[in-house]
Amino acid sequence: MFKGFDSKRRGILSTFLGFGILLPQTSASIAFETSQSTTINDPAPGFDELWHTVMVDISVMGVIFAAITIYFMFKYRRKHPDQVGDAPKMSAAQAVGWALIPAFIFMADDFYLAAKGWQLWNKFREVPADRMEVKLESGMYSWDYTYPNGVRTQNKLRVPAGKPIMLRMTSRDTIHSHYLAKYRVKEDSMPGRVTYLWFYPKEEDIGDRDNLVTCTEYCGVMHSYMVGRVEVMPAVEFMRWYKQEESKLSQNNNNAEDNSTATATNIILEQEV
Amino acid sequence: MGKVLKEWIFTTDHKRVGILYLIGSIAAFCLAGIMALLIRAELTYIGPTITNDPNTYNVWLYFHGAAMILGFQIPALTGFMANYFIPLMIGAKDVAFPRLNAFSVWLFFMGIVLALLTFVVPDPPDVMWTGYPPYSVITTGNTALYTFTVLLIGFASIIAGVNFLTTISFMRAPGMGWNKLNIFVWATGAGFIIQLIFVPVLGTAVLLIAFDKYLGTNFFDTTTGGDVLTYQNLFWFYSHPAVYVIFLPFMAIIFEIVATFSKNMVFNYKVVVYGGIFGIVLVSGEVWVHHLFVTGMPDWIRIGQMVTTLLISVPVGLMVIGLVGTMYKGAIDLSKTPMQYAMGFIFLFLIGGLTGIPNAIPSLDLHISDTYFIVGHFHYVMAVAGTFAIFAGVYYIFPKMSGRMYNETIGKIGFWLSFIGTNVAFWTQMEMGLEGMPRRYYDYAHLPQFESDQMVMTVGSILIGIGFILALGNWIHGAIWGEKAPDNPWGSNSLEWTTTTPPPHGNWPEIPTVDADWHPYNYKKS
User: Fold this and answer.
1) For residue A20, how many other CB atoms are within 10 A of its CB?
2) What would the DSSP string read from start to end of B319-352?
3) Cβ pair A214:B442 closer than 8 A
């Protein structure tokens, strides 16, 4: 895990050098740390922000190149059939300059974007401690979730609003990719490996029918129908459902113990997506 | 007739071998293009549109990807163009090993035949052009066809690599130093260096799939200690450099065209060659993990290869500056079809290249990876930009190759239709991807918001199709009924135009020599 950009270290660094230009940053990080127990570092808005930065960046570059090309196209049109090009011969210094200066500009831009990207990456990979961990096993062609209390659902991920959700993912057959477009995140689920992702469902996501889970790694003939839904519920309602399913589960288990022929069917099939 | 056929089958003339490559790759292009239109037709509306069987659709997808890359782009550039241009550009009578050259084109044709068996066998391969296990191992589709198509075409390419690197090293005309080579010769040579290093890795990867599927080995079976990511690492360790095997020659052919139609020296020639072309060779092998940004690879390598991937912008940027700079103070003639394709290429390549930058950043890739965004991006930067370069190159060399002229008006109409169609189709596709449309979908019933965009994309693809058909028809018509072409219709300074049209076997009666102030792009003295 990369810690280089995480807020705690910056806080320590700022306390060491806590004056001058770093002062505003110090107070900002202290303010952040005191409220960290309630603030979740949600990466999804960070995605939109970085996306915007990158789009501005590449648009500027693209427009500069395109404008120069169009300008040359019309400025240097051939006037008569025998005309030849008149590019001045470059000196060695000019040639090197035309290599090094653009190279440094491109590299500066690359490192700037890389630093921004790394910062956001840490947000995506550092899962808040105050989270709920759900296990996911994917298979052709369904998403099977198991909650910490053993409750299992298929193709429907019920989550409480305001609680970071972490998925620990694996697959029982081939490679699938669990994609949550709304939360700007996906990660492959693979046989023999465990991967993870996390996302932060919020109050405003409650009742969103388009909060889908799609499969983005080609997995066979029904790939495009392998779809689930994230159902964000108010925390209280979620707890009610969660406890209810838990008690059903324990009842089933008791029954199973009483009657060895009974099979525990605790998968809730909800596939009306 | 029989005699002519025999002459062509047993030919060792590099120009005829090149034309055979062109015929094979255009055949692959036409079939794969038909697949593309079928795919678009299927996706126009929600639900089954022209086929009820998702598997049929998946076979189209497989064939479209595999045939376009392995059957069209790589052979058209490193087969046809390398064969036709390189010996003529360096002033050689033929390649170093003409019989090996003929062997390589027939291996390629065998590969095409294997690929065509897709439409005959009862269990066609449905593994996409990437063939990821475990799916490619557990599928009932015929993965062996995929494996052996890749092996045959890969082997053809290794042979060509040895042949052309020898030719370039030892058969240059007297007086032609390394710094007087055409950009195309440099770039294609660099592409062959990449092929020689990396193709064996791809060969290994696809062979291991066949072993797993048919011989019961467990390289990718996790239940017995295999690993699913091994294949992806091996595959992309080749297949990302393969992008540059396509990119370098197609960029270089645009350099040739821009320099010729601007009658100008290539801007900063040495930096383009040693910084741009060889810079790309240098970084090509250290960036493959950007195809695996969402596979749970360790964080250190995802971050590390984000940096190396972004740094590709340096050599590519130097090449683009060289390309645009070549127009500076030139005498630009925009009225010819190859030059229009070349200009169109620059814009497509700018859009495609720059939209690669968000893909290089893993935290952005978490959202856009494996969506229509990435598909749109590589269709801009590689598929259509590459095809534009190939079409520009064929139009450019057409008078020399066939001895006749094509029709300028039809050529330009074809260009504009496909240029507009490309932007309509693939810009829309990138927007869909950003909004969350996953790739390789047969149906998008649960994403109905994309139906109108899908329709727009289909319209765009039809425009592209018409544009390309016009170009193909124009060549066939021109080759048979066109006006006789002069020896040097574009007034180029490069050696390939000094021979008669069409060039005889052996190219020149005497090997040409070049003097001290000759340079393929030096127009000032003449």
Assistant:
1) 7
2) HHHHHHHTTTT--B-TTSHHHHHHHHHHHHHHHH
3) no
Length of chain B: 526
B219 C-beta neighbours (distance < 10 Å), count? 21
Q: Which residues contact B285 (CB under 8 A, 6 or more apart)?
A: B197, B198, B237, B241
Q: How far is CA B145 from CA A174, A221, B63, B68, B218, in A?
A: 21, 19, 11, 16, 20
Report domain A132-269's class: mainly beta
Q: C-alpha B130: how far from its chain's center?
A: 16
Tokens 């950003």 belong to which residue? B434
Q: Which residues from A are below 8 Å from B333, CB to CB?
A: 77-78
CB-CB under 8 Å, A124 with B321: no
At the topology level of CATH, where does B2-497 sit?
Answer: Cytochrome C Oxidase; Chain A (1.20.210)
Mean pLDDT (whole number) for B44-61 = 93
Q: Where are the domains positioned within chain B?
A: 2-497
Task: Note the pTM of the prediction, 2 decimals.
Answer: 0.90
Instruction: Pick the residue from chain A with its C-alpha nearest to B315.
Output: A103
For A171, the 3-state DSSP assignment is strand
Rounded to 10°, the helix B408-434/B451-481 angle is 160
- Residues 6 or more apart whose CB falls under 8 angstroms from that of A107 comprise B311, B314
Under a CB-based contact definition with an 8 Å cutoff, are residues B101 and B10 in contact?
no
The nearest CA of chain A is from the CA of B408 a distance in Å of 18
Q: What is the three-class DSSP state of A48?
A: helix
Q: Where are the domains of chain A?
A: 1-33, 43-76+93-125, 132-269
The pLDDT tens digits for B279-292 are 999 999 999 999 99
A81 burial type by CB count under 10 A (0-12 exposed, 13-18 middle, 19+ buried): exposed
Q: Over range B302-323, report the average pLDDT.
A: 95
Contact check, Cβ <8 Å, A50/B268: no
Q: CB-based contacts of B459: which residues, under 8 Å, 6+ apart?
A: B424, B425
Q: In the structure encoding, which two tokens stand for residue A238, read together? A: 């979620």
Tell me the C-alpha distance between B45 and B67, whole Å: 26
3-state class (DSSP) for residue B177:
coil
Amino acid identity at B297: M
Please check whether residue B213 is in contact with residue B220, taking contact to mean a CB–CB distance below 8 angstroms: no
B526, B472, B449, B517: which is closest to B33 by C-alpha? B472
Average pLDDT, chain B: 94
